[in-house]
Automatic annotation (TrEMBL):
SMART domains: AAA (SM00382)
One example GO MF annotation: ATP binding
Listed GO biological process terms: L-amino acid transport
Stored Gene3D superfamilies: P-loop containing nucleotide triphosphate hydrolases (3.40.50.300)
Name of the protein described by the UniProt record: Urea ABC transporter ATP-binding subunit UrtE
Family that this chain belongs to: Belongs to the ABC transporter superfamily.
Swiss-Prot/TrEMBL keywords: Amino-acid transport, ATP-binding, Nucleotide-binding, Transport
Amino acid sequence: MEEINDPILRLNNLNVYYGESHILRNVDMGVASGKMVCLIGRNGVGKTTLLKTIMGLLKPRVGDVSFFGKDITQLTPDQRARMGVGYVPQGREVMPRMTVKENLLLGLESHPVTPAVKQNLLDMVYELFPVLKSMLSRMGGDLSGGQQQQLAIARALMGQPRLLILDEPTEGIQPSIILEIEAAVKHIVASTGISILLVEQHLHFVRQADWYYAMQKGGIVASGQTSELSNEVIQKFLAV
């Protein structure tokens, strides 16, 4: 398998268990600066477990996680967030009884900023997701699934991440909104230099990434540039 040179995020020999169930097996992978990396694989192979381990929600029994050359294996999720790791979990998890504006401002909790910086961040997310600007006083729980996904990504961006982790951002979302989210994520990488690691099943979105890793039975079994993603790999790891 091909290797990413000089990654900002490096996973080395990760082995993660739920109780005595061995979920992740000897995982080695990396994410380069300013690149989009997609993790593909069928349901139940360990993709979400891997993202939770990177975020610090799960601890590896063996192996380590490093970020910009610093070992972060023992750091808590909030410590990782302050270092610049942003996370949008599967299911979005917006605050349903808070307004869109309040949800966005929650993203500043890990990085208190000046009023000027706060306004710049808000302007950035309004440009990426214009629908949010017209819904600032609406409750998060009253948004559609696609709008909630846009809000969740925008909230993560408010924390000024250097790496943004997205777990199936297009799951259960109508096709028109999928394209909007796809375009926004591409623009984030191109305009800000933020690195993206995402789990995704939507083939068109997968092909927007620079690099892919394929998982099977808790391990990485294939990797490479998405420009070289073969139909054989697609059928094996993406086809339902």
